[in-house]
Each structure stands twice: as structure tokens, then as C-alpha cells.
Amino acid sequence: MLGVFSGGVVAPPEVLVLAGSRSPSPKTTAEALVDRFVRAASPAVSVRVSSDAHFAYSHINESHLLPRSFAVKDDIFCMFEGVLDNLGGLRHQYGLSKTANEVMLVIEAYKALRDRAPYPASHVVGHLSGSFAFVVFDKSTSTLFVASDQYGKVPLYWGITADGYVAFADDAELLKGACGKSLASFPQGCFYSTNLGGLKCYENPKNKVTAIPAPEEEIWGATFKVEGAAVFATTH
């Protein structure tokens, strides 16, 4: 799965910008990245939401234990990979039918967080139990919300393309070719929200997430660490 977003939606992480400057390497544009994904993962679905947001996904090489799904409701676009172990209970909590799947559940959870949730985002994401990674884009507010499960069971990476778009994908090699050293593994147990202060740990919401520049020999530009907790972004 792949999602790319312009600087008008999300500010590129400074540590990844610096990593790309410190160790210059070949990069491609966001459009070229999407085209490469669509060709390599054919048959694939490509959804251009606007000039600022583009999704692409495919079921090629999909694990039957960690399926991918995509949905749109009320101008909220969501791409989800994985499974929720407590999906049944969450359906009841959000008033959904028994046929609602994970991607629809995440859209409803995001809507509750945006419109009426009486508790912080860390509680909303923290109540999701299972193996997952997802990317939500709210077209009505140009808001991005991204999260990964607490153990990093579903790989998720982010990087910066040649034209400054921030890209999220479950394939590190795909992003490496487009982002060079401006690339990192998305930290497990964390969420990123353009509307709620950037990158935060939902397991330890009071602990700051910091970025550590990676050694030159690593393919990553940085590693993200939750302060005060022995939690590092994992590589796959």
C-alpha cells in the first residue's frame, strides 16, 4: 500500500530532510513513485484524491493473515493493512453493523475523534488491538492521521520524495528508490496527526518521540525512539 501527500498537507520530518541532505542519493518524484507502484503491483488501484493526496494499493503478495483494504466515506479516505482482534467489541462501541470490516471501523473511530470524542487520540488508537497499520486522509480538512500497532507487526515506512511529498508504504524497497536516505521505519505504538501535534506515542502519551540520525551505512536516515521507554522503530 502507498500514500503520498504534499507539503500542503504534512510538513516533511526535518530529520529526514537533513538525512537526505547529509547523504545525497537518487530520488524520484511522488508521481513517479505512484507510477512505479502501479506497474510493479498490477493489478493495482490508484486513487488521486487531489493534487495534495494520492493513494495506491494492491492485493498482490498480500498475506491472508494481514489483508489490505481501502474505503471512502464522507470524504474520509482510509487504507488499512492487518486485522483487529477486538473488531467485534469495537463494532458495538461505534454502533456499526456486524458486516463492518477494519477499514470502516477506523473511519468511524477517526470521525468520533474528530467530531465528538470525549477522550484523547491516544485512547482511540490504544483501544485497537491486533496487527495493523493505517493511513487516513480527511479531504474536508486536509488532515492526515497515520498509526501502527504497538509491536510493529505490520511494516510501515515513511520518506520524502524528490519533490517534497511525504510517502507512506509497507514496502521499504519501494520507498528507498524514491526517497533515498530520506527514509525511516514508522515507529511502532505511535500515531502521526497533522491536527494533533505530529508524531506521538499512544502507549506512553506523556513520553516524547525523538529522532536519532542513523549511521551512514544504514539504509535509514533516522530511527525514532520513545523517550523513557525501550521502544524503537523496527525494521523488516
Write up this protein.
The chain has 6 helices and 14 strands. It has 236 residues and is α+β, with helices and mostly antiparallel strands. The protein has one domain: Aminohydrolase, N-terminal nucleophile (Ntn) domain (Glutamine Phosphoribosylpyrophosphate, subunit 1, domain 1), CATH 3.60.20.10. Strand 2 and strand 3 form a beta hairpin. Helix 2 (30-40) runs antiparallel to helix 6 (172-179). Mean pLDDT is 88; it is low at 231-236.
Strand order of the largest sheet: 2-3-1-9-8-10
The average pLDDT value, as a whole number, equals 88
List the helices and strands in order.
EHHEEEEHHHEEEEHEEEEE
Helical percentage: 10-25%
Gross CATH architecture: 4-Layer Sandwich
Low-confidence stretches: 231-236
Per DSSP, the total helix count is: 6
Organism: Acorus gramineus (Dwarf sweet flag)
Domain DUF3700: 2-226
Protein name: Stem-specific protein TSJT1
InterPro entries: DUF3700, Ntn_hydrolases_N, TSJT1-like
Name the features.
Glutamine Phosphoribosylpyrophosphate, subunit 1, domain 1, Stem-specific protein TSJT1, alpha+beta, six-stranded antiparallel sheet, 14 strands, disordered C terminus, DUF3700, 236 residues, 6 helices, Ntn_hydrolases_N, TSJT1-like
